[in-house]
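Minimal example, chain plus adenosine-5'-triphosphate.
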Amino acid sequence: MIESVGLSKFYPSPIKGPFDVKSLRDFLGKPREEIPALIDLNFKVKESEIFGLLGPNGAGKTTFCKIANALVIPTRGNLYISGYDSVKEHDKIKGKIFTIFGGERDLFGLFQWRVSVEKNLRFISELWRIPKIEAEKRINYALELLNLKDKKNEWYQKLSAGMRQKVYLALPLILQPEVLILDEPTVYIDVFTRREAWDAILELSREFGTTIILTTHNLNEAEMLCDRVLIFNKKKIAEGKPKELIEKFQTLKIERKLLVKIKGKINVEEFEKTAEKVNTYTQNGYTYLEIYVRRDYLKDVLTILTNHNVTDIQNKTTTLEDIFKELLGGENENLA
Ligand SMILES: Nc1ncnc2c1ncn2[C@@H]1O[C@H](COP(=O)(O)OP(=O)(O)OP(=O)(O)O)[C@@H](O)[C@H]1O
Ligand SMILES: [Mg+2]
């Protein structure tokens, strides 16, 4: 459905002025420095899958979304959407793909500011040639799902950034594109209504079979929504189902955190040979411990604890966020 084959993008470094060293190099015929944004990115996305592109700031997420829309031309490699090259054959996929740029809202200037939300949605449906009655049904459904019914008569201009982002998310529910590219779709949306945005995204994939590529920094969001993810920083670092990645990489390197409550006191030196770090404080005759331990020493730490009067113990399990930090914290060698 979507295939990235050796996709690479190097931006030319900007020319600062006539006496800029780089410009001078250019003048002398030496190649200008380039800013890498994507390096040899290979992956495939299946039909109706939600695929997450996860990377830190500057990883190349927006660059990828722009290539999908032929707004940026790759230096090397190709991105195929429904079998067509996203840049060279863009006219073939134009009516099939829809993109929401989170950080750069309404990049395509679809919404009119001094027009109500509902009229805006009707107008855009008309542009996509959705029959009137069908459009009306879909608009009502989308506004209901995103809990935006009470905003339908408001001018688009009067909405907050988060509300506008949600109105934007109503569009794929109405236009029902084959492929949806979401560049940080829940940026600006608060934690109370993020669930509605997530539901809309899940609904698209499950009900309408939309194939979705989603970029995010929110690892919770990725774990919640994505069937598979690709962790990258210009180059691919790892790829797989969130659960599989957690399983695969929660090896010795990743620390477990145990939260332990003990009646009485405990000498932290007891953990000297087994734990990475122990934080402790006492209150009302109880000692509270935060024990960071490598997985292979877990058993030893638990053995020590059995000699004490433990009244509570919690194990913080590894999340996709832990894996993300672990993989991007060190060398970004290709582990995939
Ligand atoms: N028009 C441009 N000209 C030169 N360099 C660019 C341009 N656009 C992006 N870059 C560079 O390409 C790299 C990737 O940028 P991109 O915006 O794709 O990252 P991102 O993953 O979307 O980051 P963020 O999480 O901050 O949105 C960065 O080093 C950035 O500085
Ligand atoms: Mg970006």
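Residues 255-317 form a domain with the Alpha-Beta Plaits fold (CATH 3.30.70.260). The two ends are 21 Å apart (CA to CA).
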